[in-house]
Amino acid sequence: MISLFSAVAPVALIILIGYLAGKTFDWERQTLAQLSVYILAPALVADSLYHTTLSLSSTLGLLGGFTLFTFIFAGIGVLISRFLGLSAPVQKSLMATTLLPNNGNMGLPVVAFALGDEGLERAVVCMIGSSILLFGLMPAILQGNGLIYGIRLTLRLPLIWAMLGGLGLKLLAVELPLGLDKGLTELGRAAIPTALILLGLELASTQFKLGRFEVLASSLRLGLSPFIALAAGYLLQLKGLDLQVLILQCAMPTAINSLILVTEFGGDATKVARTIVVTTLLSFLTLPLVIWAFS
């Protein structure tokens, strides 16, 4: 069991440092968020895809698995919302907190520590799929602006262009001159600790409270999601490390960006913020169990 917790302990340490820093100093979180979103995370994606050894079948399988997981989980969320008679804002909040796992800030480092570099490059593929869902479909789901609006929003993200750039360099077998690929790698390495520190800063400013909504959303996000991912993986005949990474990435706590989307496009921001805190804290207990159960 100690070896299982060792996969999340380094992540917890960096988040704790960010939390203590947030309680001690007045940080400008917006700057760190912009640094992560517009520079470091795109560099990590581009570098991972540029150096990837993943086969096309693994890449398509992971993207397909995450997409199938999302649609199955969305259907379950709709049924639960109707059965419980939830109001429209609460329904939107439930969709945002359950459909959007934090497979960037949390997922990448946990997979890296638990499954190594081969797992990490697969985790990046899942993160790309999640990012497309996050900015491509969720605005349309939450506000009803339509798919075209979501696609336009997605195309503004540097993450998408970093993905295309990294894939283009890989497929064309381009060798970057003057060691530029090393600079890209170093930028990418900074993405994970920066994202974890930012997560700690966010937790330091969010109130902890456990109500009925938080219990329901946390149970779905942390308890049900690994089994839905397992079913999606089996349906697409994913095996080995591909299946492990899909399950682990889908088992992550609620994404911080879900709060941004709910604030912008509709929902209960307070409930979403509390769910982010609850699922993040509980995930340090649930993720080692997921690693043990599906390894």
What would the average pLDDT be, to the nearest integer? 82
| Measured distance between first and last alpha carbons | 13 Å
**How many strand elements?**
0
Percent of residues in helices comes to: over 70%
**Helix and strand string, N-terminal first?**
HHHHHHHHHHHHH
Question: Which ranges are low-confidence, i.e. pLDDT below 50, for 5 or more consecutive residues?
Answer: none
Tell me the strand percentage band: under 5%
Structure in words:
By secondary structure, the chain is mostly helical. The chain contains 13 helices and no strands. Helix 3 packs parallel to helix 8 and helix 6 crosses helix 7. The longest helix has 37 residues. The radius of gyration is 18 Å and the shape is globular. The relative contact order is 0.20. The mean pLDDT is 82.
Short description:
By secondary structure, the chain is mostly helical.
Primary descriptors:
single chain, 295 residues, mainly alpha, 13 helices, globular
How is the topology of this model organized?
Blueprint: H1 2-5, H2 9-24, H3 29-50, H4 56-84, H5 88-99, H6 107-143, H7 147-155, H8 158-171, H9 180-204, H10 212-235, H11 240-250, H12 257-265, H13 269-294
Helix pairs in contact: 2-9, 3-6, 3-8, 3-9, 4-5, 4-6, 4-10, 4-11, 5-10, 5-12, 5-13, 6-7, 6-11, 6-12, 10-11, 10-13, 12-13
